[in-house]
Amino acid sequence: MNFTAPESLIFWTTLIFVVFFILLKKFAWKPILGAVKGREEAINDALESAENAKKEMQNLHADNERLLQEARSERDAMLKEAREIKEKIVADAKELSVVEGDKIIAQAKATIESEKKAAVADIKNQVANLSVEIAEKVIKEQLSNKDNQLKLVEDMLADIKLN
Amino acid sequence: MRCGFEIIINAVHLHRNFGTIIFIIKGMMIAQKSIKLIAILVFSLLPLFAVAGEEVGDHGDGKEFDASELINGHIGDSHEFHIADWDGHPITFYLPVILWSDNGLTVFSSEKFHHDNTGHHVVEANGQEFVRYNEVIFYKDKFEALSEDEKGAFNLDVRPLDFSITKLVFSMLMASVILFLLFFAVARSYKKNDKAPKGIAGFLEPLVIFVRDDIAIPNIGEKKYAKYMPYLLTIFFFIWINNVIGLIPFFPFSSNLTGNIFFTFVLSVITFLITSFSGNKDYWGHVFAPPVPKALYPIMIPIEIIGLITKPFALMIRLFANITAGHIIILSLISLIFIFKSIFIAPISGVFVLFMSVLEMLVAVLQAYVFTLLSALYIGQAVAEHDHH
After folding, report:
1. Which residues from B are below 8 Å from A33, CB to CB?
2. What's the ipTM?
């Protein structure tokens, strides 16, 4: 192997390597490693945030589901309540109407009774008046002559006898 | 104990990585079967043309072909960048020679040596005379007094200090510029585009993330890895691209930079320094106050210190040996054609060279990975906070 002077290669290798190393470190490795690391972090961040978003979505979904469930049960409760209220109203109305009807019937009955009483009383009065008038008229007729008057007295007396 | 444990860890990491890479290569191969066939055909026929070219080149000196000289020339360093031979003349990219001599700084073009590597051609510069012998530049007057054994690169008394931009330095500069432009483009693309990466960023980002998630974090730990990321990324891509450049067989590539032990030495020293300066109380405590009876300290402390040094030493040798071995095998296979002096060997060694080249592509990334992984592992050991037993 041909060795030229060893100091030549040792000197130049040291010099070139050191300068080369410093230049590369400053202008290549620093930006490259920085960029690679930055990008790795960015990718990791992106993946993480995607994962978070997914989780959030799931949470949201669960929330939605829960809200829906709540709404549904609330609606059911409301419907049930409404039905109950309706039934109660109907029942109340029925009860009320019966009571009212009874009351009206009772009033009507009472009115009819009183009307009836009044009518009977009236009829009685009228019959009495009529009877008096008839009696008056009959008496007037019968008593207009002497014979009749006598006869009447006789009849009457006869009646009394009979009795 | 620690050493054995480390080897197991290395083996596990290596095994896992081998699996991944082989799987990728398999997938590519299945998808491109027909392309593969054509490539094999072309690669096996290519040496035929090379033989034709080399025969013309060999006419001049008529020397016997020397494979070890060729291989040594290719895996070593040189002051100029040989591109090709044309019509018996070499086409060469000349690089500057920079010397720190007795008369101070001396700069001239490597063209002045006229391809001489035997110590005969004299170059005058800055009032001094230089000769070059086996790619080492000597003072001419001192060189002539040397015996053959003393004409080595480590004989600093007889030669000026050489800070030349050699072929390997040139290649290293080129690799740095390519890598810097590449990653600067990636960094800029992130400023414009903060969505998924596109284009070049899409191709390189997985590699950056691979270094982070499979090398830095498992070995250094989630808390402390960020500080060492720039260094690990730099050595990973720097070693890889230089390995690959070494495998491309034409100008301006083909230099064997990562197969040069001085280069791997510097890188492992840097890892060693980073490891040492990152070392916490536990780490140094384990070295200088190991959990053994005090009487054993004279044995244990030197062993621990040797343990510190063997780690970067292994890093240095591993990368150097792997890459150099690959180059030597490929060059040897090509040399076979010239040793047998028969073009019928060419298709055979062409197929083997293709196979080796594919294997070396794997080794190129694997060794970059191993160097980075072990650096991370050593740093991880230095910064680890463990409770004592």
Report:
1. 208, 212, 226, 229-230
2. 0.79
Q: CB atoms < 10 A from the CB of B227, how many?
A: 14
User: Domain tally for chain B?
Assistant: 2
Chain A residue with the nearest C-alpha to that of B327 = A1
Is the domain of B122 the same as that of B148? Answer: yes
Q: Are B236 and B358 members of one domain?
A: yes
Do the Cβ atoms of B208 and A33 come within 8 Å? Answer: yes
Q: What is the pLDDT of residues B22-47, one digit of tens each?
A: 555 555 555 556 666 666 666 555 54
Average pLDDT, chain B: 81
- The reply to whether B10 falls in a domain is yes
Check: CB of residue B382 under 8 Å from CB of residue B280: yes
Answer yes or no: is B308 within a domain.
yes
Q: How far apart are CA B382 and CA B289, in angstroms?
A: 15
Residues of B in contact with A41 (CB under 8 A): none
Residues of A in contact with B233 (CB under 8 A): 24, 29
A42 Cβ contact partners less than 8 Å away, ≥ 6 residues apart: B194
Compute the nearest-CA separation of A54 from chain B (Å). Answer: 23
Residues from chain B contacting residue A1 (CB–CB below 8 Å): 72, 75-76, 324
Q: What pTM did the predictor assign?
A: 0.72
- Residues of B whose CB is below 8 A from A6: 153-154, 262
In a domain, B91, yes or no: no
Gap between the Cα atoms of B334 and B54, Å rounded: 12
pLDDT digits (tens, 9 = 90+) for B253-266: 888 888 888 899 99
Tell me the C-alpha distance between B121 and A77, whole Å: 117
| Average pLDDT of the residues in B297-304 | 88
B263 with B117, same domain: the answer is: no
Q: Is residue B388 part of a domain?
A: no
3-class DSSP state for residue B107?
A: strand
Shared domain for B132 and B275, answered yes or no, is: no
Tell me which residues of chain A have a C-beta less than 8 Å from any C-beta of chain B: 1-14, 16-17, 19-21, 23-25, 27-33, 35-36, 38-39, 42
Distance (Å) from the alpha carbon of A49 to chain B's nearest alpha carbon: 18
Task: Give B274-283 pLDDT, tens digit per residue.
Answer: 999 988 888 8
Last residue of a domain, one of B139, B164, B189: B164
Question: What's the gap between Cα B370 and its chain centre?
Answer: 13
Say whether B199 sits in a helix, a strand or coil.
helix
- Owning domain of residue B108: 96-164
Note whether B234 and A26 are within 8 A (CB): no
- Distance (Å) from the C-alpha of residue A10 to the closest C-alpha of chain B? 6
At a CB cut-off of 8 Å and minimum separation 6, what does B211 contact?
B229, B232, B233, B236, B372
My answer on whether B38 and B128 are in the same domain is no
B66 contacts on A by Cβ (under 8 Å):
none
Helix (H) or strand (E) holding B76: none
- A 10 A CB-CB count for B94 gives 13
Pairing of strands B104-109, B128-133: unpaired
Q: Which member of B76, B231, B270 has the closest CB to residue A2?
A: B76
